[in-house]
């Protein structure tokens, strides 16, 4: 735990109103970015952040003093957003059409072509980042959420598998298929300059 | 050492990228990549895809300096 975190938690436990306001002001923006990525709905994302702070305040006694406040809040925010996602219960679709096809001898049906720019170059442009975001949002929900939790939020595999109530093997397959599907969606744009 | 085809390499590309293959399988993957430009291009773009996903999120975080003021105010009231 950081020294600043320790002082803040102590004040929160003592019911310090200003400490709660500091907690909100410091952490609301990054937590909103997390819940937006998971939910893709502004109103639901804001609700999830509010619920995060309510849950955090109620659970302040359970805060593990070896953790960082930001890590603790991140975990609560992910849980609040996932709960909303489950309630939304989207119909599961598959990504087969976005996976590479193969000939009977095991070769790719269509040869892959290299992309013209590196990710670092592409990410400098806001328009290109918006395109990446749109392509991620096009993935069927069970694949998109795996990509968000593993590759963006970088949560450990066992944690994600438990949250999504799937096996680690199933999670690994889903993540690989999600990356391949996203690669297919990006491919026509990345072959030429964006 | 077994001969690897494109379909096998791409099926286990995540394990290759994450360095989870045993040494013998990794060498057979490397040999396939040496002779298959299509799989080399696929591997490069697969890695770029992961970079783009992470990089886009990091840029979003950098730009997310402020939460909407009305949200901040609503949350402060929750406590009161």
Q: Can you tell me the number of structural domains of chain A? A: 2
Chain-averaged pLDDT of chain A: 87
Tally of discrete structural domains of chain B: 1
Shape of chain A: elongated
Strand content of chain A: under 5%
Radius of gyration of chain A: 20 Å
Helix/sheet category of chain A: mainly alpha
Largest interface, with Cβ-Cβ < 8 Å? A-B, 51 and 42 residues
Shape of chain B: elongated
Amount of beta strand of chain B: under 5%
Helix segment count of chain B?
5
The stretches of 5 or more residues of chain B where confidence is low (pLDDT under 50) are none
CATH homologous superfamily name of the largest domain in chain A?
Winged helix-like DNA-binding domain superfamily/Winged helix DNA-binding domain
Short description:
The complex is a heterodimer of chains A (194) and B (80). By secondary structure, chain A is mainly alpha-helical. Chain A contains nine helices and no strands.
Please explain how this structure is put together:
The complex is a heterodimer of chains A (194) and B (80). Chain A is mainly alpha-helical. Chain A has two domains: 3-88, Rna Polymerase Sigma Factor, Chain: A (Orthogonal Bundle); 96-190, Winged helix-like DNA-binding domain superfamily/Winged helix DNA-binding domain (Arc Repressor Mutant, subunit A). Chain A has nine helices and no strands. Chain A is elongated and about 70 Å long. In chain A, 33% of the residues are buried. Chain B has 80 residues and is mostly helical. Chain B has one domain. Chain B has helices at residues 6-11, 13-17, 23-35, 37-63, 69-79. The N and C termini of chain B lie far apart (69 Å). The interface between A and B is large, with 51 and 42 residues.
């Amino acid at each position: 735990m950081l020294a600043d975190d320790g002082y803040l938690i102590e004040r929160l436990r003592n019911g310090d109103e200003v400490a709660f306001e500091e907690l909100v002001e410091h952490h609301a923006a990054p937590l909103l970015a997390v819940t937006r990525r998971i939910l893709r709905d502004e109103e639901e994302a804001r609700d999830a952040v509010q619920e995060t702070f309510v849950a955090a305040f109620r659970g302040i006694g359970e805060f593990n003093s070896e953790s960082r406040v930001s890590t603790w809040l991140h975990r609560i925010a992910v849980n609040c957003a996932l709960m909303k996602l489950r309630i939304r219960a989207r119909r599961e679709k598959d990504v087969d059409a976005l996976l590479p096809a193969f000939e009977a001898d095991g070769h790719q049906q269509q040869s892959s072509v290299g992309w013209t720019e590196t990710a670092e170059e592409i990410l400098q442009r806001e328009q290109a980042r918006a395109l990446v975001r749109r392509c991620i949002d096009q993935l069927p929900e069970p694949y998109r959420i795996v990509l968000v939790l593993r590759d963006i939020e970088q949560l450990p595999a066992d944690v994600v598998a438990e949250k999504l109530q799937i096996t680690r093997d199933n999670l690994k397959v889903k993540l690989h298929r999600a990356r391949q599907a996203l690669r297919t969606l990006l491919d026509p744009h990345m072959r030429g300059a964006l | 050492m077994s001969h690897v085809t494109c379909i096998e390499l791409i099926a286990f590309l995540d394990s290759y990228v994450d360095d989870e293959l045993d040494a013998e399988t990794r060498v057979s993957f490397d040999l396939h990549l040496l002779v298959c430009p299509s799989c080399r291009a696929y591997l490069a773009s697969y890695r770029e895809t992961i970079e783009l996903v992470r990089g886009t999120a990091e840029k979003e975080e950098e730009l997310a300096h402020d939460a909407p003021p009305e949200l901040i105010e609503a949350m402060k009231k929750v406590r009161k």
